[in-house]
Amino acid sequence: MANLFEHMGLEKERLHFSWISSAEAGKFVDVATDVANTVEALGPIDKFVKKVA
Amino acid sequence: MDQLTEKIRELASTLLKDGKVDMVIGFADGTLPMTSRPFLATESDKAAQLVWNSFCSLNLTNYITGRKEKIALFAKGCDSRNVVNHIVENKISRDQLHIIGVPCQGMVDKKAILKAVGGEITGLCEEGDKLTVSSSHGDVELNKNDYLRDNCATCTHRNPVIYDELAAPLVEEQTVEEPFADVAAIEKMEPVDKARYFDNLIKDCIRCYACRNACPLCYCPTCFVDESGPQWVGKGQNPTDIQTFHFLRAFHCAGRCTDCGACEAACPMDIHVRAFTRKLNKDALELFGWEAGLDTEKRPPLDTFNPDDPDEFIR
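Predict the joint structure of the above. Result:
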């Protein structure tokens, strides 16, 4: 899915997949922070966004 | 009448007369030159309406989904791969089918002929590779191989992969050096150009869903686009909704698409809808070494788990 998203012009960095156990609080924080940072760096998205008048 | 059509009528008529099948699915002539329509014959005298030519672009597997009768089906290479899909996905059982393989030399792109000839086409006569097109501008002779649909030009499964009998001798398979050159070209683009390419591609889409209806893979009782509770995608002409429809339609075909081109043949707006599924076919081949519909014993890659499955995307 990530591949087709990227193929259609969505930056790959916007879509993240991870496997985190409920016992891995530290990993969860790390991944969430990293997702937030990379997406923030890319700026607001203008594709696949539906604007409701 | 050409030899193949004659053979097809004879086979169909015998099968129906002997009561071996309840129905024969093939093609009949359409109402305009260069068109064909799917034809379901249930009596032997109806078999005389069957034809076979270079415009039998639709995929007949679409018409066997969930059928209860014993059916004889004329299948090109791609149709036969979709029959395999149907058997794997329990949409029909192998014992219900009498598959008559029709080795294929490629189907002709009607739209390319229209473009080349210009005027209104009044008739077309086919002899081997020679197409004689009559139009309001007079007669033109064209070589069929210059006007193949592009999925046929890169097809490496012209012979049926599963059949009970053949209507014609097997043909030599093509070797294609770079079957996915078109996809690779898009992959090289920058994200913004990719987005522009796809925006431009589907700008004419009228959401008629002909691509979905012509596709043998799309057999859900209620398609996600028709569902209203929950409503997965807006039903209007909003560009994002159109894009979502195409994206999801393609993804439902991931690892199942045989690139038969029925979607494009059915599209009234001439949209290259295969641009979406082609990428997934390329991925299926590169990531899973998979080409759909070749083996009734194997499940499609997104339907199974294998410890060796690529997992670079997950962390």
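The longest helix of chain A spans residues 25-42.
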